[in-house]
Design goal:
The chain is of the alpha/beta class and about 375 residues long. Helices cover about 40% and strands about 20% of the residues.
């Protein structure tokens, strides 16, 4: 379905190092100077989900196909970007194209790595980026007002509604708050999305710490965690340097031993990927058989036909029903046959809302 998270932040906070580790490639150049990433690099990463391995084992599947999430490494933003400073609006347009923002904040001291602001202060860095995005949003909205005012004077009801929404969003932005805090009615959600505001996108903070703080974080990451909590979002602690090393280890046992020596049970990237998945309001359903066990992504609240369409558009068009087994029932019954015998396989229709972990088989007409 093409869900993408944009990795943003000031220059030299570890964005490209994090991206390289995420995609296990060297597609994005990581260097100790601003703007080493000029064009946004993108990559797909598997979403860690141990349930898929469990299902594959029970079904004796020949191969396992995890669901994926897209990440885009966007060049460093600097103060004044909304007015063209640095690489300016080029970066803002790249952010506009993603579904959520992974905001990397530098939470470590290192005299060998320069900081564009001359000091290490993740909260100040966050404010700098937020301010530039809010200024860009304000400019975007203000440009739309005059044409809408003219239409509204002609009793164009849609123009009146859009103008009211824009004025409310502008009031929020002028108050120094991101557009996502605007109070909108359910019937306005589609119109609000159409505004394509940068600060309407959900945000996940990633605190890039030194190696010794990878397990528990540090005083700087604790401040970011407080900010995230106040905003109703999450903050994840990672050491981009450690993640880059782990990404080079191909042997699973060697990788786990490396993590254990550092007091870590899993990579920080696994937490980032899962948090990004949750940030977008996504859930996973599964299709399982002897040939393949596969995870699929849908938005929370998706109904059965829409979910079938993720596999193939014909499945949605000709949807008849969905044979559905909850993950826990599939495991408890030892697989599909056992679940069927014990009455745990359900026949769901067009109005069924897919639940996270559902194991599904779709019936359809072509």
């Amino acid at each position: 379905m093409g869900f993408r998270c944009g990795i943003v932040g000031l220059p030299n906070v570890g964005k490209s190092t994090l991206f390289n580790a995420l995609t296990q490639t060297i597609a994005a150049q990581a260097a100790n100077y601003p703007f080493c990433t000029i064009e946004p690099n993108s990559g797909l990463v598997a979403v860690p989900d141990p349930r898929l391995d469990t299902l594959a084992t029970l079904a004796k599947s020949e191969r396992i196909v995890p669901t994926q999430l897209g990440f885009v490494d966007i060049a460093g933003l600097v103060r004044g970007a909304s007015k063209g400073e640095g690489l300016g609006n080029q970066f803002l347009s790249h952010i506009r194209e993603v579904d959520a923002i992974i905001h990397v904040l530098r939470c470590f001291h290192d005299d060998d790595i320069t900081h564009v602001e001359g000091k290490v202060d993740p909260l100040s860095d966050a404010e700098t980026v937020d301010t530039e995005l809010m200024l860009a949003d304000m400019e975007s909205l203000e440009k739309r007002i005059d044409p809408l005012v003219k239409k509204a004077r002609g009793n164009d009801e849609e123009a009146k509604a859009r103008l009211d929404l824009i004025n409310r969003a502008l009031a929020v932005l002028r108050d120094g708050r991101p557009a996502r805090t605007t109070e909108i009615r359910p019937e306005e959600r589609k119109m609000f999305r159409e505004l394509q505001l940068l600060t309407a996108k959900p945000v996940l903070y990633v605190c890039n710490v030194e190696e010794g703080s990878a397990a528990e974080g540090n005083a700087l990451s604790a401040k970011v965690a407080e900010r995230a909590k106040a905003e109703g979002t999450q903050a994840v602690v990672v050491s981009a340097a450690i993640e880059a090393e782990v990404a080079q280890l191909t042997d699973p046992d060697e990788r786990q031993m490396f993590l254990s020596d550092l007091g870590l049970s899993e990579t920080g990237l696994s937490r980032v990927i899962r948090a990004g998945y949750e940030l977008l309001g996504l859930i996973t359903f599964f299709t399982v058989g002897p040939k393949e066990a596969r995870a699929w992504t849908v938005t929370e609240g998706a109904k059965a036909p829409e979910s079938a369409g993720v596999i193939h558009t014909d499945f949605e068009k000709g949807f008849i029903r969905a044979e559905t087994i909850a993950f826990a029932d599939y495991v408890a019954c030892g697989g599909e046959a056992g679940a069927r015998d014990k009455g745990k396989l359900r026949l769901e229709g067009k109005e069924y809302v897919v639940q996270d972990g559902d194991v599904m088989h779709f019936r359809f007409n072509t």
